[in-house]
Amino acid sequence: MRLFSKYTKAERKDFPFIVLFLAFPVLQVAVFFFYVNFSSFALAFQDTAGNFTFDTIELVLEGFKNNKDFQNNPLMTMLGHSVVIWISSNILGTLINVFTCYMLTKHMIGSGFIRAIFAIPGIVGVVVFSSIMKQLYNQDGAVTEMLINFGMDIESVRRGGLLTSMETAFPTILTQSIIFNIAGGNMIVAGAYMRIPEEIFESAKIEGCGFFRETFQIAVPCAWPTISTMLTFSLCSFFTADLSFYLYSNGTGSYGMNSISFALYKMQVTISETHGSNKILYNYMSALGIIITVMTIPVVLLGRKVLARMNDTVEF
Amino acid sequence: MEETSFKKKLNKFHNLPIATKGILIFFFIFFVVEVFIHLYPFWFAINNSLKTADEIYESKTALTQTWSFANYISVFNDFKIQGGIYFETMLWNSIWISAVYLFVNISSSVLVAYTLARFRFPFQGLLFGVMIFTQTIPIIGTGAAAWKLKYALNMINNPSTIWVSWAMGFDYSAFILYGTFRGISKSYTESAKIDGANNFTIFFRIIMPMAFPSVVALLVTNFVGVWNNFEISQIVLPKYPNLAYGLYVFQMPAIWSSIGENVFYTALIVTILPGLILYLSLQKVIVKNLAVGGLKG
């Protein structure tokens, strides 16, 4: 009863309504989030018969050491690809996007129209977008032809396009993800810039504030809570969000078009296609997930701490 | 809140120092190049969707000569994947999967966000922590355990049960809606209570209408996500392929070579139309209502 004593009579009257509203979502998150995570953790320390073992974890670590997992995928290379994509596209890309988004929202004519165009790749989705881009990267595709005209001289590119060469496949996807990420079309950040009262900028101008001071000492700090939240989400996208390698390589991961998220998704597809009969995949995928999570969490927590330190004033 | 107008921006530009003008011109060129890069792939797809198969074979980059709008009708007869599944079946699967997913997911998020934002109750802090935790701590590789659970609960290939797994209320949408509900003054609730309104009346007739723009913004952004989601069909509902999965499978060499490439481009364009129309027509609602983190003051 002591649990309820700090609530007023009126607040206690609301409890049945609150229970009614929260019962299903709480049960759902308990089963599909917490139980799944617990189960995944347990699977990582089990063999196919369900006995406790460290063998699967050791198998994954061995895979990192030899750059070859139990299905002969280059595990260390995939990890490298994930880190490169994450740093360049997600972190640096988001930071550049914060700046270009400000330029677009506050200083460019037709910014609403331009932002709508920048949103198109996100709206059409990764399948449609990669399907079109693959055609542009083919041996007779516009991008390949342009690069050959600019002097790219790689035989396999001439024969099969940019996605059929170890030298060009990964850099092509990396470059594409950077180019499409830095454009400045982030609607949430744009909304934050638009909500900054115009009077702040006008007062700054009267006091002789220049262009860069306006951007970095007024606009970005004012919108910082929103920006830091977006950066936190970017931090968390480490290894989780990117399925483009799967789509660009038609699920094969060939010519270096692979990453940790590719490997995890590929395993999940195999589990689904074999109706779960390949039991070792449950354990291996969970063990790989645990190891990657352990690597990721310190980075994410440190990043969040740094971002939180820059975000300690009032909101309006 | 209003975006700086065209005229105001132009006037501002004229009064700027030369160096600042130079920076702005540099960025203007940057944005023009980015616009071209963003538009070209879609122009390419639209252009090829209006060609005959022979025309595509001759050149994919040349402007269409035939303007074959008939492709947009024939796609319903010609676009098919393994198992004889036609475009209209995949379209129907995309529609019902998106509708069910959005309904259960957003409803659940509304319930969580509303109670956390508007009431005081035991374990509130814990549940708020759960909402933050699910979004900010990445736990990777749980797909195998999730699939195993869904298989055990008979959810694989089962539309009558799979919706339960989509009803995640402690998610990004709840995070956004929490801000919206917190932003609505408590005086509305208090006045309604004085007038004798119960919690259901307050929720459905006072608060939800005020939060409606945010819900619409979330519906649109989440619609785009689920409409284009091919993992749902590939992993949990393989017997119910949606358009996104159909487009992926269509590119496998065996199918690709047997059906005209123009049909593929037409299918691409038809697939993206609903999301594109919804998103672009409601862009202002989305920008105004999807706020996270607030501003410093």
Q: How does CATH name the architecture of the largest domain in chain B?
A: Orthogonal Bundle
Biggest β-sheet of chain A: count, sense, barrel? none
Structural class estimated from helices and strands of chain A: mainly alpha
> Would you tell me the structural class of the helices and strands of chain B?
mainly alpha
CATH topology-level fold name of the largest domain in chain A? MetI-like fold
Ends distance of chain B:
15 Å
Distance between the termini of chain A: 38 Å
Write the CATH fold name of the largest domain in chain B. Answer: MetI-like fold
CATH class of the largest domain in chain A: Mainly Alpha
Radius of gyration computed on alpha carbons of chain A:
24 Å
Annotated CATH homologous superfamily of the largest domain in chain A: MetI-like
Count of domain modules of chain B: 2
Number of helices of chain B: 16
CATH superfamily of the largest domain in chain B: MetI-like
In order across it, which strands form the biggest sheet of chain B? 1-2
CATH class value of the largest domain in chain B: Mainly Alpha
- The portion of residues forming beta strands of chain A comes to under 5%
Succession of helices and strands of chain A? HHHHHHHHHHHHHHHH
Explain briefly what this protein structure is.
Chain A is mostly helical and 316 residues long. Chain A is 73% helix and 0% strand.
Structural summary, described in words:
- The complex is a heterodimer of chains A (316) and B (297).
- Chain A has helices spanning 2-5, 9-13, 15-44, 55-66, 75-107, 111-137, 142-149, 155-160, 169-181, 187-195, 198-206, 211-222, 224-236, 244-248, 260-273, 279-309.
- Chain A is mainly alpha-helical.
- Chain A folds into two domains: 2-44, no CATH class; 60-309, MetI-like (MetI-like fold, Orthogonal Bundle), CATH 1.10.3720.10.
- Chain A starts with a helix and ends in a 7-residue tail after the last helix.
- The relative contact order of chain A is 0.12.
- The mean pLDDT of chain A is 89.
- Chain B has 297 residues and is an all-alpha fold.
- Chain B has two domains: 6-78, no CATH class; 84-289, MetI-like (MetI-like fold, Orthogonal Bundle), CATH 1.10.3720.
- Chain B contains 16 helices and two strands.
- In chain B, strands 1-2 form a two-stranded antiparallel ribbon.
- In chain B, helix 9 (172-183) runs antiparallel to helix 11 and helix 11 runs antiparallel to helix 15 (261-281).
- The longest helix of chain B is centred in the first third of the chain and has 32 residues, at 18-49.
- Chain B is globular.
- Classes of the chains: A mainly alpha (316), B mainly alpha (297).
- Chains A and B meet through helix 3, helix 5, helix 6, helix 10 and helix 12 of A and helix 1, helix 2, helix 5, helix 6 and helix 7 of B.
